[in-house]
C-alpha cells in the first residue's frame, strides 16, 4: 500500500457504533461477527464525486473516502504495558511462521530484496493502532454516532432514544461539557431468515423504518436486511473480514473490545448473501454522502469562523500575545446537521475534554483546542491546505509556550499534511524529524511515554523515505528510533534498518549482517528465540570465509544452543559443526566446542531410527584438490622411495632395457578427443594396491583422533561377471594428529575383480562418533592443445581394472640403513613371485655401489653351499651362464655406470617355494643420502593384458663420513727413480675408532715400501700420535701392499710415509690395466669400477667442452694447452678433491708422464662391529716434478792439502731421467756460461734461463755444456763433470741448469740444479 492511501486510511472519519444486544445477537449467532466487524468492509468508497467547499470560495471534489467503525466502549488508548504485551504477542505469532521467510542472501544475488519482512508490516500496523485515541489528536474522536437496532423491537423510536441516553461514551467524551455536535444516525437491522410463522403486518421492517423516519428524521435512518444466505454451505465471503478483524488487547481498547465471538465452522459471514452485502454497502454510502460529508463540511466552516473571531484582528492579536498561557473558555455551540434541505438531525453534544490521561500532552482548551479541531476536521474532509495552514499557526503557539509534546504532535500531522499537498521531500522529512526530536525525552526527563510517539514519527519517516527511494534516510530514521526503545521493538527496527542497507547501490552487506546480529541479540534478550535464530541464520553466510572468526563463533554458538533447546538436533549439529575450525580460540574453548558437537551428534544418532549419514566435517583439514594416486600396472614399484624418483629418470633407464619399446603418443594426437578419453582412464591390476595420498592437517591446539580413515571408491565389474559384493577391499587407518600437525596419509584399496574403478573421496570417523566424508573436487577436463598437459598435472581417479597378473617380489637383505663411507657390506638378493611364475628376468643396476655375484649358489641360506637337488643345480647353471654387461656412461641418468644382469629365458621364479637368493656387496664411496636404483624386467607366465612388467626399486642408505685421506707424492730428493708418499689420515667417526689394515697400490709396475725413518702423526686437537712403532711394525707384503695394523681412534689424525717405485719403463699394452677384466675380490672390483667411472666422466666432460666451442677457436685452444702444459703439477688425489684429469685436456696430460699416476687403496676395519672398508685414492700425481729430472752426485767430504796443491779437483756425475712419455732433447749448462745463453735458439716455457751469479770459490773444468740429442722416455743419462775448489770449507754447487725440449707434444722447459754441498778439510 502506498503512503498516500495508508495516510487516508489511518486518518479518516471515525464512526462510533452503538448496537443493541438484539442486533449483536443477530450478527454473532449466524456469522461470528459483531455489528462493528460487519460494517468495516463497507466503509471504503472509491467511486465518489462529492463537491465540498469548506473555507473560501473554491470548492473541490472528494473522489474516495474511508470510514473507520469502532465500538463506543473500545474507543480509548490501552495502557502502555498492555500495548507492549500485545505487540510482543504479534512477534510471537510471527515467530511461528518464521520458516516461510525468504533467504535474504539468495534474494540479494537475484536482485529481489524485499522492502520489509512479513511481520514488520503487521507489527507497524498494530503499533500505530496502539497509539490511537490520544487526548490531543482529535482525528480519532468520533464525528458520527451510529445507533444499530433490531427490526424486531416493538417501538424502535423509543428504543433508539433510550439507547442514546444510556450508551457508553468513550473516555474522551466522558465528563465533558458540550463543545461540538456529533452526527447521529440510526440503522435498523432486520434478520431475513425464514420464520416459522408469518409476522403481523405491523412488525414488518418497512413499517418500522417508516416509524423511525417519522420520529427521528427522514435522513437519519436506514434499513439493512441480513442472514438471507444459506448457512449450511461454507462461506465464500470470509476473506472480506480477515484483514478487518483485529486481535483484541488485554483489557480492551485501541478500537477493539476485550473479547471476540468465536469463528463459526463455515467461516465469517456464513449466513450473508451477496444481496445482503450490497444493501449494506448502499446504506453506508448514502450515510457518508448524504450525512457525514455535509456534517464535516459544516463543522470545518463553523470552526473556521470561531478561530477567525478569536484570532483575527488587532485586539485579538494583542490578547493572544499577552495572555497566551491563559485558557480561554468558549461557549457551547449547538447546531443541527442538515443536508440538501433535509430535516435537522439530532446531535450528541461534545463536552470539553478533561485533563490528558496519557501523561504526554497538555489538555486542549481555548483557541488552541479550536485550532487543533479545525486542522483535524479539515484533514478528515481532505482539505489539506486548510489543515496545513492551521497546523503551522498552532505550532507557533505551542513552540512559544514550550509545550513540546503537543508541538511534536502538530509537527507529525503537519508532515502528513504537507505531503498530501505535494510539498518537497525535504520539507516533509523535516517535520517528521522535528516531531521525533520533541517527542524524545531529554536527559533529565523521567517520563518515557513520549518515546512511543517518537518511534511512530520515525516509522512514518522511514516509510515515506523508502517509498521515494531514500533508503539512507529510512535507515537513519530507524536506527535513531531503536536506540531508546525496548528490546523487542528495537530488534524489529534493527531488522528493517538492515533491509534498507540492502537497497543501497552497491548493497552494504557487511553492515546489514551486523545489524541483523544486533537484532538477534535483542530478540534473544526478550525471549523471542525463533526470531533471534532467524536473524542469525540470515547472515551466517555473510561471515563464512571472511576471517571474522569470533562473530562466526558467536552466531553458530547461539544458533546451536537454541536449536538444541528447541529439539532441532539436526540444526544443532550443523551449527556446532561450523564452530569446530576455530584456530584463534584458546585450546580450552576448542575442547569445549568439540565436546559440545560430539554430544549433539551422539544425541542425534540415538534419536534417529536409521544410521546417521556422513557429515561435512571441517576437521581435519583435507586437501581435496591435489590428491596423489599411486598404482601399478605394467610398471610396478617395490617401495615408496621408488615412486619418489622422477618418472623421466626411470624412463631413461627403461629405455636401456627396452631400446625398441614404444615411444608413446606424440604431440600430434595429444589433444585429440579419442586420446583425451583414453587419458582419463588409467590401468591397474586386480588384487594389487591402489594408494591414495591425502594431506591431513589439524588447525586446532588440541589433538584429534581420526579412526576408520579409508578411501571411497566404486567398482563396476565386467558384464560377464556376476556379484560385486566385496569387490573392493579398502584399508582403514587410525591417525592421531597432534596440535597444529600436518601429515600425509596413504590409504590403500584393492579391487578384487576386473572392471571400472572410480575413486570418489575419503571417509573417516572423528573421535569414534561423527562420520565425515569428502568428495574429491577436480577441474573438468578440457579439449584442446593443453588437454594432455592438464591431464598430466591432474590426479587419476578413473581406472580400468584388468585381471590379476604375476608379480616379481625383490628383497634386498642385510643392507643396514646407515653405513660408514667406504665400508664393504655383504648382503643377499632374494627373489620370489606372487600370483604365479615369472621368467626372463633382467636387472639394471644404475649404481656403481652395488655388486651382484651370479656365480654364487642359488640356495636361500646365507652361506654359499652348493645346491643339493637337480633342479637347483639347473638353476645354478642357468644363473652362471647369464651375462652382466656394462652400458655406456652417457645413457645412464646419474652419469655413472649401469650394469644389466640377465638370468636368461629358461630361468623362472614361482612363488615363495621357488624363491632364490644371491650374495651382493655394497660399497658406498660418497657420504650423504644414497639411493640405489634397481630396475627389473620380467615376463608374467599368465595374463594376456601384460606381456611384460617393469619393477622399480630404490634402496635408501645413509652414508656417514669415515675417513678423510689425503696423499702427497713428491720426487725423492736423492733418487731419480722413486717418490716419497705422505699419507694424512683424519678420522671422521664420532665415537667409533678404526683399525688401519694395509695400504695397497693397484697400478701395474708400481711398488710400495714403508720408510724406515719415523713419521709424525698429529691429532686434530694438536696432540701427537707417534707412528714410529707402526713404521717399525710395518713389513712389506710382496711389492704391492704394506701391512699397517695401526689403531686410529675417533677424531684423531695419523701421518704415514712411504716410498713408491714407478715402472722402470713404459708398460707394454698387455700390462696396461684392463677395464673389462674382473678382479679377484670385491674390493678390487669396486676399485677398478671407480677407476673406469672417473675416466668415463673425464672423457665425457672433455667431449662436452669440445662440442660447445666453435671450430675456429678449437685449434687455438689446443695450442694454448700445449704451451702451458709444462706447468701441470699433478696434485695429490683425495676423496673430496677433484683429480687433475677433470680439467680440460686432462686425457692428454695423463699420458705425458712415464708410468702415469699410481692408484692406492687404504683398507681398514671398524673397531666395534669389525666391518671392513676400503678408501680409494686415484691418480696420485707427483708434486713439483719437471719433465726431466736431474741430480748431481759425487764426494761430499774431502781432505786436501792446499799447501802442496792450490786447487782441488773433484769428479762429479750429473744424472738425468726423462719422466715424460715421449723422447726429449736436452742441454746441460755449467758455470758462467749461463750468462751467455739469452740468445739461444729455443727458450724455456717459463721465460728462458735465469742468470747465474759469478762464482769465485769453484771453477767448472772441461766442457761448459753437454748436449743430449735424444733421451728416450724413462731413460737415464749420466754426464761426467769436474770442478776445481780453491779453498777449505763448505762449498755449494748450484750454478748449473738443464734445458729440455720435446717435439711431440711440443713441450719445453728449464730445470735448475739442486745444490750439492762439498766439505773440504785440510789434509795434515
TrEMBL record:
Bias category Low complexity: which stretches?
A: 1019-1029, 1092-1111, 1129-1151
User: Which InterPro entries does the UniProt record give?
Assistant: Ig_TPPC8_1st, Ig_TPPC8_C, TRAPP_III_complex_Trs85
Q: Which domain of life is it from?
A: Eukaryota
Species for this entry: Apatococcus fuscideae
Stretches assigned to the TPPC8 C-terminal Ig-like domain: 1189-1297
Q: Name one GO cellular component term.
A: TRAPPIII protein complex
PANTHER family according to UniProt: TRAFFICKING PROTEIN PARTICLE COMPLEX SUBUNIT 8 (PTHR12975:SF6), TRANSPORT PROTEIN TRAPP (PTHR12975)
Q: What is this protein called?
A: Trafficking protein particle complex subunit 8
Q: Which residues form the TPPC8 first Ig-like domain?
A: 679-770
From the UniProt entry, list the residue stretches annotated as the region Disordered: 239-271, 334-359, 863-887, 1010-1032, 1092-1152
